[in-house]
Design brief:
55 residues
Length: 55
């Protein structure tokens, strides 16, 4: 279930192929969908990055 303002499943299917794939080097990345949803939240609310919610 997506929260208010988060990417829907259909939107995520269109965005996901455009993001870089994990290549095994370095430390593991956070889930791309979680990061994109946080960026969208930040843009929508205008809140400072330090005020991002934990989820």
């Amino acid at each position: 279930m997506t929260g208010r303002g988060e990417l829907t499943g259909a939107a995520w299917e269109r965005v996901e192929p455009l993001l870089p794939q994990v290549d095994g080097r370095g430390r593991p990345w956070r889930d791309h969908r979680q990061v994109v949803n946080r960026v969208l939240w930040r843009l929508r609310t205008g809140a400072p990055w330090r005020d991002l919610p934990e989820r």
